[in-house]
Structures are given as structure tokens and as C-alpha cells.
Amino acid sequence: MKYIYLAPIGTVDDDILAALETSLWHAFGFEVRRMKPFGDPSYAFDGQRNQYSSTMILRELVRQCPPDAVRLLAVTEHDLFIPMLSFIYGQAQLEGRVSIVSLARLRQEFYTLPANRVLALARLLKEALHELGHTFGLTHCIEKECLMSLATNIRQLDLKGCDFCSSCSILVRESMDSLRKQTPEHFTSEERK
User: Among this protein's residues, is 131 annotated catalytic?
Assistant: First the structure.
């Protein structure tokens, strides 16, 4: 049996992880298992930027990825970067097994606005599905409302819809069909039809 694993890095609220578990199961059809939290990724901290290197964290996730994982999604409160960008909401291995999303810039408080937990969760769900979409082979989509459209600022992220466009949905389905063939015992008879 294969699973999507959800791994908090540091402290992440339980209700946020529970909402992600449900959303990931509905989106991809694999049972979601939560891993024990990974400790603080001090090895990835860049003192000059006051941020964490998502690339270094992804390397560690590859090493820690369970053998029965279809995918591993890590969630953190830490602010992430890659060298060529001042920040990122998340990162994934294209057609790989691991991805990470950060709550840091998804929270209204980051922009000195009043907290809005519902909005932060909606943003997180979009970003989680987006990053996992990359692991299933999807690249950035030109459809602005598609989950796979590129968001370089919070406004663009908020304008995205909550679903993959029809073209990206087809690609996700093809990837799921391929995984079903590899692990047919995972799916119920209804899902195989």
C-alpha cells in the first residue's frame, strides 16, 4: 500500500494538518499519513537572509521519505527561499516525491494585518495542491485561476481558484492512473472503474 505523507517541520497547528489530510485525500485519492514532526531545520538557516533554504530542506526530506510514500509534503512556519528569489511559498521536486510549503507568508499577520485563520488555511490548501501538482509532473499553467498558475505575490495566490483547470486535471488523472497501475491494491473497486 502507498500513502501520501504529511510532515510538520517544527510546530504546526493540529487543525491545519487535519484540514490538509482531508484535502489531500480528496484531491489525490491516497490515504494520508502524518509523520512525527521534524525538528527545527537549523542546518538550512541563512542568517543573512533570516530565512530557511527550501532546497536544503528538500534534500533532507528525500533522505527521510518513507519507502511506501507516493509523496511527502512537509509544512512549516519558517520563511523559505531559494537563491534566485527573495522568498517562496513552497517548493517541490518536479516529478519527484517530496515537497514543502510554508505558512509564514500565507498568514495575514506577516503583512501587519489582523489574523484571518480561514484565509491562511485556504492559501495553504492552494499552495499544498500546487506543490504536489509539481510532484505529479505539472508545470506552471497559463490559466490564472488554475491551482498550477504561478503566484509570485499573495494577491496572485488569492486570485487563484481552488481547483486544477481542465488541462491540468487531465494530467493529474493520467498520473493517478499510472500510480493505480503500480499499486492497484490501494484503491477500492469503485475507484478502479
Answer: yes
